[in-house]
């Protein structure tokens, strides 16, 4: 422990978006920083088996769908369209490799040490790393836990990553299944279900609740289900899977109504279990040093991201809040800055959420249901993609933008989008909420024509009932 080479200002455990960004920001602020990562590549779940590879496959599958069904309207004739799954997978793997290699480059650039192995907090200020060459102990003035999350298991269903897969296995299927059952109608299930449906699988989504995308605005949820149903996906809501038997060539599922009732069986070539994620804190030694967890096994932190054990911090999926990579990144930056003596905070109402189906779904701020529950009086403005010139030119007329503003102050409280490039469009509205803008501020901001962004302006005008193009 007396070796200065083994002593750091900060050791980050976990190199996902929260961890590696925190490490980089800490290094920029002059801290001697190390990051512990057990996997052979940096980047955590997001870069390796989550956000990045899934978006690569989504893009490839969407291009195939476009070539099949949508280019003809532009006068582009292709004849019989086919795809090579192995090439799609190779593209996905290259995207992952380029991104993880990029993080490794940034570590070298910022002089961050990569401690390869499994990290464990032996005591406040002391991290043990179990690597290929044995155990090594390191000292740190501060320790940051950024170990992310893992797929939530489902009782009665054993994931083998072959026939019954988690999101990880769904990214590497060797062939397109004839039919796939997705357990869970949330972001991961809908995105990966969309990939394989676009490539030819018959996809059925089984959801315990009475609607898909439960955290989203109800109108958004219902609209998106109609769109996905029109595309050919099927939904079985208010249902629960109680068992799954791998028969070798297929899987037999037992399904019951969530409210109780007679069971039924369904058969699928592949079953994707996507009922959510849970904090990954296994083997960190938290119980030994006395770090408190909440009722959902998340690490309890204060407003500075510090746990009840002095010098031990946590960010990202292991603490309360939405399990989003960009939320973890922002927390990593703010946490590092606070450690360096600076001030910082995060406005959690201004953190956007995106579902990368096609069309996309994006949301920031409060839903109508949340505002009603809180007794907040609000006004609503809504404008459809079908009334926008750019959307018509693109042939992307499904969806709408809905803006919710305080009835008294006109401050924007929430924005919900279903439509093409919703994930990009939402950035303007996240900025609006961050700066406390009113719907009038948005409405009086000149938006370029013809763009999809004009839909946002028209929705803002609609808050006062004065949309122009509808």
Q: What is the count of β-strands? A: 22
Characterize the main sheet: 7 strands, mixed
Number of domains: 3
Shape: globular
Strand content: 25-35%
How would you classify the helix and strand content by structural class? alpha/beta
What does the model show?
It is a single chain. The chain has 470 residues and is of the alpha/beta class. Strands 1, 2, 3, 4, 5, 6 and 17 form a 7-stranded mixed beta sheet that branches. Strands 8-15-9-10-11 form a 5-stranded parallel beta sheet.
List the defining traits of the structure above.
FAD/NAD(P)-binding domain, Enolase-like, domain 1, alpha/beta, 470 residues, 7-stranded mixed sheet, 14 helices, 26% strand, 5-stranded parallel sheet
Gist?
This protein has 470 residues and is of the alpha/beta class. It is built from 14 helices and 22 strands. 32% of the residues lie in helices and 26% in strands.
């Amino acid at each position: 422990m007396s070796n200065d080479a083994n002593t750091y200002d900060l050791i980050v455990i976990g190199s996902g978006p929260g961890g590696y960004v925190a490490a980089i920001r800490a290094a920029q602020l002059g801290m001697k920083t190390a990051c512990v990562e057990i996997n052979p590549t940096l980047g955590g779940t997001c870069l390796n088996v989550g956000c990045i590879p899934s978006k690569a496959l989504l893009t490839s599958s969407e291009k195939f769908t476009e070539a099949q069904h949508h280019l003809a309207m532009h006068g582009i004739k292709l004849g019989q369209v086919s795809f090579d799954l192995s090439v799609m997978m190779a593209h996905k793997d290259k995207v992952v490799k380029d991104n993880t290699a990029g993080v490794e480059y940034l570590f070298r650039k910022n002089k961050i040490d990569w401690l390869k192995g499994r990290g464990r907090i032996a005591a406040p200020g002391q991290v043990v790393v179990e690597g290929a060459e044995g155990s090594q102990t390191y000292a740190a003035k501060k320790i940051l836990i950024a170990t992310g999350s893992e797929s939530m298991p489902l009782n009665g269903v054993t994931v083998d990553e072959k026939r019954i897969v988690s999101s990880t296995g769904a990214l590497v299927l060797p062939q397109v299944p004839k039919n796939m059952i997705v357990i869970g109608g949330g972001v991961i299930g809908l995105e990966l279900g969309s990939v394989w449906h676009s490539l030819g699988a018959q996809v059925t989504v089984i959801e315990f609740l009475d609607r898909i995308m439960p955290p989203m605005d109800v109108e958004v949820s219902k609209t998106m289900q109609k769109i996905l149903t029109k595309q050919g996906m099927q939904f079985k809501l208010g249902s629960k899977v109680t068992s799954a038997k791998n028969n070798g060539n297929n899987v037999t599922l037992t399904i019951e109504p969530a409210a109780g009732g007679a069971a039924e069986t369904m058969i699928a070539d592949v079953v994707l279990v996507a009922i959510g994620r849970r904090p990954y804190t296994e083997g960190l030694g938290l119980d030994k040093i006395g770090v408190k967890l909440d009722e959902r096994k998340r690490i309890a932190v204060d407003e500075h991201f510090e746990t009840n054990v002095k010098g031990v911090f946590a960010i990202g999926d292991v603490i309360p809040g939405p399990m989003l990579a960009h939320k973890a990144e922002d927390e990593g930056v703010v946490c590092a800055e606070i450690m360096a003596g600076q001030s910082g905070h995060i406005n959690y109402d201004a953190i956007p959420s995106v579902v990368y189906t096609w069309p996309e779904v994006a949301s920031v701020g409060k839903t109508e249901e949340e505002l009603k529950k809180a007794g907040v009086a609000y006004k609503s403005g809504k404008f459809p993609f079908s009334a926008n010139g750019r959307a018509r030119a693109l042939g992307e007329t499904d969806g709408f933008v809905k803006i919710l503003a305080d009835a008294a102050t006109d401050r924007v409280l929430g924005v919900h989008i279903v439509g093409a490039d919703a994930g990009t469009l939402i950035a303007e509205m996240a900025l609006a909420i961050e700066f406390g803008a009113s719907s009038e501020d948005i409405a009086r901001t000149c938006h370029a024509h013809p763009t999809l962004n004009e839909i946002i302006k028209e929705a803002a005008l609609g808050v006062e009932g004065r949309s122009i193009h509808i």
